[in-house]
Specification:
With 434 residues, the chain is an alpha/beta fold. The chain has helices spanning 27-36, 53-64, 90-95, 103-110, 129-137, 169-179, 195-206, 238-250, 266-274, 312-319, 339-345, 375-387, 397-403, 407-413, 423-433, and strands at residues 7-12, 18-22, 44-46, 68-73, 76-80, 87-88, 112-116, 141-145, 148-152, 161-163, 185-189, 210-212, 218-222, 231-232, 254-258, 278-282, 285-289, 299-300, 325-329, 349-353, 356-360, 369-371, 391-395, 417-422. It is built from 15 helices and 24 strands. The structure holds ligand EPZ. Ligand EPZ is lined by residues 28, 31, 98, 126-131, 166, 168-171, 309-310, 332-333, 375-376, 403.
C-alpha cells in the first residue's frame, strides 16, 4: 500500500450535489487487463485508462518485467511485451497487492515466476492460498522461500478442474490468465462473478483465448498455444459510480451519471431505493434524486452480485445520517471497519459487534480532522464531510488517489466545496485549532 499521502482534502459541508458527471473506467478492470498484456508478444492497446496511483504502479511493474509501455494519447496505452522477466519484486507487490496478477501470465508464458509475498493490509489479512492452490492444480510446483513465492512448471501448465473454496476476485482472474496458455481445458468452479472478470475474459478472447462462462460460477478456459495483441476499452468503474450515487443521497442531491453500466449497480441501487432515494436508469445513464433524510437499512457485503464491500464504508457514512438504526455487516474482509472510529469523531453513533456495525443515525454530522486508513475509507470520509456541518479535513489523500481518478474534481463539478491543501498548511491549521 502507498503511504498515506502528504496532503489533505478540505471539505466544507452543506452543498447539495446537483448536475451530471461522467464515470471513469474501472481500476479493478484495468489492473488485470494490463497483467494480461504480458501473455502476448503482440502489441496491446488499452483505451481510456484512468490516471491513478495504482495504474502507475502497475506500469512500473510491467516496465520492471521488460514490457514497453507508452502513452500514445491521453489515457491510451500501447504495451508490447516482446520479452518478459520472471520476477515481480517485493517493493512493488508490497505497494499494490494486485501486482500478484502478473503471476498467472508469467507462469503461463515462461513456465516459472517468482513474486514477493504481500503482507496483510489496512483492510485485514489477505492470503493468496487460493491463487497458489490453483497454480498447483495446473501442474506448477509452488514453494515459499525468503518472503517470495516461486512457481515452476518447466513442461508448461496443463488444464485442470479447480474448485475455489471462496470466489476470490483476483484469484479467479489469476487462474484464468494462467489457464489461457495451458494445454487442455480448465474449469474454475465457485469462480468470482464480478464484471471485471467478464471484462478480462472478453479482452483475452479478443487476443485469441477461449474463455467462456465468465460472470457465472463456472468458468471454462480452453488453452491455446499463443495469444495475439488486441485493443480494448475497460468497463466503467461501478465503485466510483456507487460512491457518487451515495454522495448524492447524503446531500439530498439530484444527479446524473453518464458512461455507466446500470446492471453492475443493482445491489447499491436497490439499497439506495430502500433508503428512500429515487433512482432510475436510461441507456448508459443513472439518475438519483434524494428528497429527504434517508431511512435506515441493513446492509451485508457479499461477492458480486451482492452488495460490494468496496462501497461498504461509503454506505456506512450515509447510514450515519439516516433515520433509525441500521446494521452494516462486512463479510468479505476481516478488518474493513477502519472508517468507523473516524466517523465517530464526526459525531456518528456507531457500535461495532464483531463484523457488524450498528449505526444509529444522527440528523447531522459535524466536521473534524480525520484520517483515511485505505482507499474506500477515505472516500467515505469525504462523503461524510459533504453532509457535515463545518469543515472536514481528510488526511491521507494519497489513499484516495490510488483508486479514484478525480473524486474531488467530480464532486466539485456537482457543486461540492472541496479542495486539496498541502500538509504544511494542515499542520498550521491543526496547531491553530488546538
Ligand atoms: C478484489 O480484491 C479487489 N481488488 C478489491 O478491491 C475488492 O474489495 C475485492 O476483490 C472483493 O470484491 C482488485 O480487483 C484489484 P478477494 P481481491 O480475493 O481479489 C479471501 C479496492 O478497494 N481470500 O476476492 O484481493 C480474502 O482474504 C480493492 O478497490 C483468501 O482467503 O479480493 C478475503 O477475505 C480492495 N485466499 C476474501 O477472500 C485467497 O487466496 C475476498 O478476497 C484469496 C482471497
Amino acid at each position: 500500500m502507498t503511504e498515506g499521502g502528504a496532503e489533505r482534502l478540505l471539505v466544507r459541508g452543506g452543498s447539495r450535489l446537483t448536475g451530471s458527471v461522467a464515470v471513469h473506467t474501472a481500476k479493478n478492470a484495468v489492473l488485470p487487463l494490463r497483467a494480461a498484456s504480458l501473455l502476448s508478444r503482440g502489441p496491446v492497446r488499452l483505451r481510456a485508462v484512468p490516471d491513478l496511483a495504482d495504474v502507475a504502479t502497475m506500469r512500473a511493474l510491467l516496465g520492471e518485467l521488460g514490457a514497453e509501455v507508452r502513452e500514445v494519447a491521453p489515457g491510451e496505452l500501447a504495451i508490447r511485451a516482446a520479452d518478459v522477466a520472471d520476477e515481480a519484486p517485493y517493493a512493488l507487490v508490497r505497494r499494490m497487492r494486485a501486482s500478484l496478477l502478473v503471476m498467472g501470465p508469467l507462469l503461463a508464458r515462461l513456465g516459472r515466476v517468482r513474486a514477493g509475498l504481500p503482507g496483510g493490509c489496512a483492510i485485514g489479512g489477505r492470503p493468496i492460498d487460493l491463487h497458489l492452490k490453483g497454480f498447483a492444480a495446473l501442474g506448477a510446483e509452488v514453494s515459499l522461500r525468503g518472503g517470495y513465492v516461486e512457481a515452476r512448471a518447466p513442461g508448461g501448465l496443463r488444464g485442470a478442474r479447480i474448485y475455489l473454496d471462496y470466489p476470490s476476485h483476483t484469484g479467479t482472474e489469476n487462474l484464468i490468465l494462467a489457464a489461457a496458455l495451458a494445454r487442455g481445458q480448465t474449469l474454475i468452479e465457485n469462480a468470482a462473478e464480478e464484471p471485471e472478470v467478464v471484462d478480462l475474459a472478453g479482452f483475452l478472447n479478443a487476443m485469441g483465448a477461449r474463455v467462456s462462462g465468465a460472470g457465472t460460477p463456472v468458468v471454462r478456459v480452453d488453452g491455446v498455444p499463443e495469444l495475439r495483441g488486441a485493443e480494448w476499452t475497460p468497463i466503467p468503474d461501478r465503485i466510483e459510480a456507487g460512491t457518487l450515487l451515495i454522495a448524492a443521497a447524503l446531500t439530498r442531491g439530484e444527479i446524473e451519471l453518464t458512461g455507466v453500466v446500470a446492471q453492475h449497480l443493482q445491489a447499491v441501487v436497490a439499497k439506495l431505493r430502500e433508503t428512500g432515494a429515487e433512482v432510475w436508469q436510461e441507456q448508459g445513464r443513472v439518475f438519483l434524486v434524494a428528497r429527504r433524510r434517508p431511512a435506515a437499512v441493513d446492509v451485508k457485503t457479499l461477492p458480486y452480485p451482492g452488495f460490494p464491500n468496496d462501497l461498504q464504508p461509503q454506505m456506512t457514512a450515509l447510514l450515519a445520517t439516516a433515520e433509525g438504526i441500521a446494521t452494516v455487516t462486512e463479510t468479505v474482509f476481516d478488518n474493513r471497519l477502519g472508517h468507523i472510529d473516524e466517523l465517530r469523531r464526526m459525531g456518528a453513533s456507531i457500535r461495532v459487534e464483531g463484523r457488524t456495525a450498528l449505526v444509529t443515525g444522527v440528523p447531522r454530522l459535524s466536521g473534524a480532522p480525520v484520517q483515511a486508513s485505505d482507499l474506500r475509507a477515505g472516500a467515505a470520509l469525504v462523503l461524510a464531510g459533504l453532509a457535515a456541518a463545518g469543515e472536514t479535513e481528510v488526511h491521507g489523500r494519497g489513499h484516495i488517489e490510488r483508486g479514484y481518478a478525480d473524486l474531488p474534481g467530480q464532486l466539485r463539478s456537482l457543486g461540492a466545496d472541496i479542495e486539496a491543501a498541502p500538509l504544511a498548511e494542515a499542520v498550521r491549521t491543526l496547531g491553530g485549532n488546538a
